[in-house]
């Protein structure tokens, strides 16, 4: 049965005492996340889920060897996923370094695909606040629609929660009209309780999205960690009336796994979050696997990987 969250009365956000956040039932979270993988999704429902997954992907290139040409090619793919299949959606966004934002913005034109930029000394976050703010402002000035920031995990793990809160709030202000995704880098936080605490800090500080990972370390996104964050979003919504987006990133390369994530999203937050305004996959390699499944459903046979561009 589908879950629908009802709108609570909106409240004014106050900075909570982050030393006291809910503890997480680790065994319960792991068992519940596993149950989402047991759902059977077939036929039209499966096809709808595959197309929705495509439309939720942030295609990403974040390498030192990125060039204008590579970014332009990625933008072309974002708009033209597989032209032999008419009616495919575009992806949600293309994510690049700040220096490549202008190139991506021009290449995407009026397609509706967003330009996301990492910032704040991605992926380590090991820099001064002044540098992080300049990084963010530069990305926005270049045309970024969205900014993906990383939290200061060292400060968080030292228990300096107010420092982390204030830094996120300052970056949010520097974003202006751009939406802010806050990357927790859950693989470095250690426990579900810390993931829950970091999620709450990010949301109260002004995040529009919370995101699991940079994709640069392992483990990246997992279903149990994502469920912890989804439940934090649900509870925050009930307290404040404010919707927050979710982005699992890294390690989601197969369409079957993406469908499991969508089941978990729907049963935890409901239909209101089942769109790319509120949910994203940070998984470029996922696109081709989904395309292979879509073409299998259409033609009855699998196409080889060589029929799809890497970038």
Which terms summarize this structure?
311 residues, alpha/beta, 7 strands, TIM Barrel, 11 helices, 9% strand
Could you explain how this protein is built, in words?
With 311 residues, this protein is an alpha/beta fold. The protein has a single domain (43-305), classed as Aldolase class I (TIM Barrel). It is built from eleven helices and seven strands. It has helices at residues 26-36, 43-55, 68-79, 101-108, 129-141, 153-157, 161-175, 192-205, 223-240, 255-268, 284-299, and strands at 58-60, 93-96, 114-118, 146-150, 179-183, 209-211, 245-247. It has a seven-stranded parallel beta sheet. The chain is globular. The mean pLDDT is 92.
Secondary structure layout:
Layout: H1 26-36, H2 43-55, E1 58-60, H3 68-79, E2 93-96, H4 101-108, E3 114-118, H5 129-141, E4 146-150, H6 153-157, H7 161-175, E5 179-183, H8 192-205, E6 209-211, H9 223-240, E7 245-247, H10 255-268, H11 284-299
Parallel strand pairs: 1-2, 2-3, 3-4, 4-5, 5-6, 6-7
Helix pairs in contact: 1-9, 2-10, 2-11, 3-4, 5-7, 7-8, 8-9, 9-10
């Amino acid at each position: 049965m589908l879950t629908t969250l009802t709108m609570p009365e909106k409240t004014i956000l106050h900075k909570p005492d982050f030393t006291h956040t809910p503890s997480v039932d680790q065994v319960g979270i792991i068992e519940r996340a596993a149950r989402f993988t047991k759902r059977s999704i077939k036929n039209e429902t499966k096809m709808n889920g595959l197309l929705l997954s495509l439309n939720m992907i942030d295609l990403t290139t974040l390498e030192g060897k990125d060039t204008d040409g590579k970014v332009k090619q990625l933008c072309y793919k974002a708009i033209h996923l597989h032209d032999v299949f008419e009616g495919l959606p575009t992806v949600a966004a293309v994510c690049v370094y700040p220096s490549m934002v202008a190139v991506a913005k021009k290449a995407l034109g009026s397609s509706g695909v967003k330009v996301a930029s990492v910032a704040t000394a991605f992926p380590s976050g090991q820099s001064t606040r002044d540098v992080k703010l300049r990084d963010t402002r530069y990305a926005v000035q270049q045309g970024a629609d969205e900014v993906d920031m990383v939290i200061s995990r060292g400060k968080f793990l030292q228990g300096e929660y107010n420092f982390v809160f204030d830094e996120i709030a300052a970056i949010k202000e520097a974003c202006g009209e751009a939406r802010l995704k806050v990357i927790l880098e859950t693989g470095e936080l250690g426990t579900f309780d810390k993931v829950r605490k970091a999620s709450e800090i990010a949301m109260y500080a002004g995040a529009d999205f919370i995101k699991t990972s940079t994709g640069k370390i392992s483990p990246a996104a997992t279903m149990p960690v994502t469920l912890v964050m989804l439940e934090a979003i649900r509870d925050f919504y009930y307290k404040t009336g404010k919707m927050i987006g979710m982005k699992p990133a890294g390690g989601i390369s197969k369409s079957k796994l993406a469908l499991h994530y969508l089941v978990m999203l729907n049963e935890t937050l409901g239909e209101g979050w089942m769109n790319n305004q509120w949910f994203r996959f940070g998984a470029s390699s996922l696109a081709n696997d989904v395309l292979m499944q879509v073409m299998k459903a259409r033609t009855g046979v699998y196409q080889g990987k060589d029929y799809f561009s890497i970038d």
